[in-house]
Design a protein that fits this description.
Elements: E1 2-4, H1 19-22, E2 32-34, H2 46-51, E3 55-56, E4 64-66, H3 73-76, E5 84-87, H4 95-103, E6 107-110, H5 125-144, E7 152-154, E8 157-159, E9 163-167, H6 171-182, E10 186-190, H7 197-202, E11 206-207, H8 226-240, E12 245-248, H9 263-268, E13 274-277, E14 294-297, E15 300-303, H10 313-331, E16 332-333, E17 336-337, H11 344-349, E18 350-352
Parallel strand pairs: 1-2, 1-4, 2-3, 4-5, 5-6, 9-10, 9-12, 10-11, 12-13, 13-15
Antiparallel strand pairs: 6-18, 7-8, 14-15, 16-17
Helix pairs in contact: 5-6, 5-10
Function: The transhydrogenation between NADH and NADP is coupled to respiration and ATP hydrolysis and functions as a proton pump across the membrane.
Catalytic activity: NAD(+) + NADPH + H(+)(in) = NADH + NADP(+) + H(+)(out)
Enzyme class: translocase
Length: 357
């Protein structure tokens, strides 16, 4: 039995499974129970889940519970000993939660811990949700801007296109660059990993080379040293003033977000410019960001949304549900839970495992 509870995080509109995925699970020998109203924030009525073959009831007593956000302490108390929990479990930033799961006898698989290898791409929920965030960030920046993004030729004259800079060329950054380009902006990407320059160019954007390199493990950038960070800040501050829209996406797993946009850089930007900071939840890439708020400083709008994927719940939920389905295909054999912990995907993503007596 697979249980799908309603998400309890304020502002969360995603749901862990959607009807299109639910209807594929009986072929794996799985039944699904969905908490009443779990899909309503994503505009999915209970009747759609029932039509897909699910039942409506208590999801917490299921063998496997699938969530989007980390469980609260109260939610962990509802889980049965010996059950499995799948979701974003925040093992690096919320270790106490992982310890509670362990104490409750729950085996936890963290979606953010799935390794970024070729065979695990279909399970890579970080990437699927980052695609949503990168796309939405450009729309947010365009809506806050006082300028057109594309070049417009009108009877009153020509308006030149806006210049957009995306800091961080991971999945969110590349999607933001591609979206800005499609909307007509002059898009430029920057990253401390020089090997992603070709990826930036592949979406039609220019590459900003500041001469600082910091390639890390697992496809992420490593944390810069103090001297490197100071030099990066100096060079970025000079470059940022040339752009109308700056989108920051830089993250270091388990650490505060690196500061890329200084207060001085914001002050140098033209009035009416916009910064969209996607790292607000881990402190922000911009020195003047206020996580969860949109503020105006030096006539520059700075937005630091905390959960952009939740603002597009239909497609964000569908993509996430596909990631969960792909993981379930590894965990379930002929309708029974049979995780092979010698599999590198399961070994990496399992953050707590029930001790066998």
């Amino acid at each position: 039995m697979i249980g799908v509870p309603a998400e309890s995080l304020t502002g969360e509109r995603r749901v862990a499974l959607v009807p299109r995925v639910v209807e594929r699970l009986p072929a794996m020998g799985l039944d699904v129970v969905v908490e009443a109203g779990a899909g309503r924030p994503a505009l999915i009525p209970d009747s759609a889940f029932v039509a897909a073959g699910a039942s409506i009831g208590d999801p917490w007593s299921a063998d496997v519970v699938v969530k989007v956000n980390p469980p609260t302490e109260a939610e962990i108390g509802k889980l049965a000993s010996g059950s499995v929990l799948i979701g974003f479990l925040a093992p690096l930033t919320e270790p106490d939660n992982v310890e509670r799961l362990r104490s409750a006898g729950v085996t936890g698989f963290a979606m953010e811990s799935i390794p970024r290898i070729s065979r695990a791409q279909s399970m890579d929920a970080l990437s699927s949700q980052a695609n949503v965030a990168g796309y939405r960030a450009v729309l947010l920046g365009a809506s806050e801007s006082t300028r057109f993004l594309p070049m417009l030729t009108t009877a009153a004259g020509t308006v030149k296109p806006a210049a957009a800079l995306v800091l961080g060329a991971g999945v969110a950054g590349l999607q933001a660059l591609a979206t800005a380009k499609r909307l007509g902006a002059r898009a430029t990407g920057y990253d401390v990993r020089p090997e992603v320059a070709d990826q930036v160019r592949s979406v039609g954007a220019k590459w900003l080379d500041l001469g600082i390199e910091a390639t890390g493990e697992g496809g992420y950038a490593r944390e810069l040293g103090a001297d490197e960070s100071a030099e990066q800040s100096r060079r970025l501050t000079a470059a940022i003033s040339e752009f109308d829209l700056v989108i920051t996406t830089a993250l270091v797993p388990g650490r505060p977000a690196p500061r890329l946009v200084s207060a001085e850089a914001v002050e140098r930007m033209r009035p009416g410019s916009v910064v969209v900071d996607l790292a607000g939840a881990t402190g922000g890439n911009c020195e003047l960001s206020e996580p969860g708020r949109t503020v105006v400083v030096h006539d520059v709008t700075i937005a630091a949304p905390l959960n952009l994927p939740a603002s597009m719940p239909e497609h964000a939920s569908e993509l996430y549900a596909r990631n969960v389905h792909a993981l379930l295909e590894l965990l379930v054999v002929e309708g029974r839970l049979a995780p092979d912990f010698s599999d590198e995907v399961l070994a990496a993503s399992c953050v707590t495992r029930r001790e066998e007596s």
